[in-house]
Specification:
This protein is of the alpha/beta class. The protein is built from 13 helices and 8 strands. The two termini are 27 Å apart.
Length: 324
């Protein structure tokens, strides 16, 4: 017929992933499940998204920590990386210190910078990790040693690759580290929609905070998100967006077992959320880099099901990139 095969015209979604995102073996009793990154990648392979609709990019760390020093206290960075950080600060991060955990943290955080640069080229790109929004200038918390969203934002700003960056954080927890690290920079707008009762109890001040009541469901959530995001996009007019698509706002997420604040989104609601954010950005010509944020299995629950929830944003992005 002379028509080109459909697959030759399909745009491939860039995914950023390194097998060392997951530290294994890992203490099975630990609340943070390190194999989630591997399970997510395997889920995307199993559903053939990787083979048929994506390209995979492996991050390689820079030779120095200058990229981390740009955002974090150099002394904190070096002490964490060489194992001399005070035990109390290690406990606050919430992950045991090993060289493998350090490498995992650095790779996952740098993966968001790699994803950002790919998004500039392709319109959308997805890190199969990231969303480490609890890391502050000189301390980590909530399983986050370094802040990927802010280090990537500064990489774009310093490279004159973007000038007005919007961070949309839809994890169930407020991005307190992101808020604190960007408070004095008018080139970065941090927007957080979260459970008001969830960790951290002492919130930082984001450019826009929308704290929702415990149990908020799809309809109320989407109404709040639509109203706020339309306003931010029109008023701030970003030329780049980072999107934290945390799935711990799912109604049956394991976060309910250890956090008094939680939300009530369904699987359909999370897919609607992701599609709304990505389409609103891309139809305005704004490149988007996504990160996975939080997601936890209930006690005795399936970590594979959590991986499938994390995959929703990648499934949506593989569709939306066709319109970029």
């Amino acid at each position: 017929s002379g028509l080109a095969p459909v697959c030759s015209r399909m745009k491939r979604l860039p995914l950023v992933y390194h097998r060392l995102y997951s530290v294994e073996p890992w203490d099975a009793s630990h609340r943070f499940v390190m194999k989630k990154y591997r399970l997510l990648y395997e889920h995307l392979e199993r559903t053939e998204l990787v083979r048929s609709r994506c390209s995979v990019h492996t991050p390689t760390l820079p030779s120095t920590h200058a990229w981390l020093h740009r955002v974090h206290c150099p002394q904190y960075v070096e002490q964490y990386c060489d194992g001399t950080l005070a035990p109390a600060k290690i406990r606050r991060i919430g992950l045991p210190w090993t060289p493998g955990v350090v490498e995992s943290s650095c790779l996952e955080v740098y993966g968001t910078t790699v994803a950002a640069k790919l998004a500039l080229e392709h319109g959308i790109s997805c890190n199969l990790g990231g969303g480490t929004h609890h890391a502050h200038y000189d301390f980590g918390a909530g399983y986050n040693a370094f802040n990927d969203l802010v280090t990537a934002a500064y990489a774009l700003l310093d490279g004159s690759l973007a000038s007005r960056i919007l961070i949309i954080d839809l994890d169930v927890h407020q991005g307190d580290g992101t808020a604190a690290l960007t408070a004095d920079n008018p080139a970065i707008y941090a927007m957080s929609v979260h459970s008001e009762q969830a960790f951290p109890l002492r919130k930082s001040k984001s450019s826009l905070d929308i704290g929702l009541p415990t149990g908020t469901g799809d309809d109320e959530y989407m109404a709040k998100l639509r109203d706020s995001l339309f306003g931010v996009l029109e008023d701030f007019r970003p030329d780049f967006v980072f999107y934290d698509a945390g799935v711990d706002c799912f109604k049956d997420d394991g976060v309910k077992s250890f956090c008094r604040g939680h939300l009530g989104l369904t699987l359909q609601g999370m897919r609607q959320r992701d599609e709304f954010v990505l389409r609103e950005c891309t139809r305005r010509g704004i490149p988007v880099a996504t990160v996975i944020g939080g997601g936890y299995a209930p006690k005795g629950g399936s970590h594979e099901e959590v991986a499938a929830r994390h995959a929703i944003v990648h499934e949506v992005a593989a569709d939306v990139i066709q319109t970029c």
